[in-house]
Amino acid sequence: MTTVAARGAAAGDAVVSAGANAVASSPERLRITEIFHSLQGEADAVGWPTVFVRLTGCPLRCSWCDTTYSFHGGEWRTIDAVLDDVAKYGVRHVCVTGGEPLAQKRCLALLARLCDAGYEVSLETSGALDVGEVDARVRKVIDLKAPGSGEVARNLWSNVDRLLPHDQVKVVLADREDYDWAVARVREHRIDARCQVLFSPVHGRLAPRTLAEWVLADRLPVRMQLQLHKLLWGEEPGR
Ligand code: SF4
């Protein structure tokens, strides 16, 4: 997924954990690329101080991916250890991202545990894997892959039926062809009637102003967004 931001304050500085003590222990492990603290850069929770849990691995290869470092490596961590790390930051919002987090089945247990602990939990997912077993308390941010991504064939359209009103569908657009494709798919599947739809330009490839003018001209029922972390930190690695 494309949300990244600054690795923030040191773990251990703050200590509010929204009921994390009530969480039962678990030996289940996940492969983790990084856990860090920053501002949410995208979607409905944009701007909230958030702890990001980035899971390792992704079966897709989007042409504009900016988190390719999450494809390999990482470190095995128990769900308990992940919850302990998250609690140290003392924030309310947690975003589980990747890579493609759902590529690891135990992601489902992690999401449920985070919800049980009282966090506001979001999941950033490619839209290529089934979201049917994701805890209903989680705000899903599901990508639709436009042609410019090179992964348009991976869209799992049955996920549209899994959308809840608090979820969001995000389309990252590289050019006018992507835009026209996205408008047609939103109308065809009536996605805007199910949840918020977010249009975002590929950083450095589609001018934000151009996309804004297209959205206004077409009176689209979508929210345009820019990636806050790119505005704050540009292409700096690890942010
Ligand atoms: S789904 Fe695409 S953008 Fe997200 S991590 Fe995988 S390759 Fe990158």
From TrEMBL:
Catalyses which reaction(s): 6-carboxy-5,6,7,8-tetrahydropterin + H(+) = 7-carboxy-7-carbaguanine + NH4(+)
Enzyme Commission designation: 4.3.99.3
GO BP, sorted A to Z: tRNA queuosine(34) biosynthetic process
Radical SAM core domain sequence ranges: 45-235
Binding, [4Fe-4S] cluster: C58, C62, C65
Cofactor stoichiometry and binding remark: Binds 1 S-adenosyl-L-methionine per subunit.
Keywords tagged on the record: 4Fe-4S, Iron, Iron-sulfur, Lyase, Magnesium, Metal-binding, Queuosine biosynthesis, S-adenosyl-L-methionine
Matching Gene3D superfamilies: Aldolase class I
Top class in the EC scheme: lyase
Binding-site residues for Mg(2+), renumbered to this chain: T67
Highest taxon of the lineage: Bacteria
Annotated binding of substrate, by residue: L39, Q40, G41, R54, T97
Annotated residues for binding of S-adenosyl-L-methionine: W64, C65, D66, G99
Pfam families, per the entry: Radical_SAM
Molecular-function GO terms, alphabetical: 4 iron, 4 sulfur cluster binding; carbon-nitrogen lyase activity; magnesium ion binding; S-adenosyl-L-methionine binding
Pathway recorded for this protein: Purine metabolism; 7-cyano-7-deazaguanine biosynthesis
Record family assignment: Belongs to the radical SAM superfamily. 7-carboxy-7-deazaguanine synthase family.
Assembly notes: Homodimer.
NCBIfam families to which the protein is assigned, alphabetical: rSAM_QueE_gams
Task performed by this protein: Catalyzes the complex heterocyclic radical-mediated conversion of 6-carboxy-5,6,7,8-tetrahydropterin (CPH4) to 7-carboxy-7-deazaguanine (CDG), a step common to the biosynthetic pathways of all 7-deazapurine-containing compounds.
Protein name: 7-carboxy-7-deazaguanine synthase
Organism listed in the record: Dokdonella fugitiva
Highest classification ranks of the organism: Bacteria, Pseudomonadati, Pseudomonadota, Gammaproteobacteria, Lysobacterales
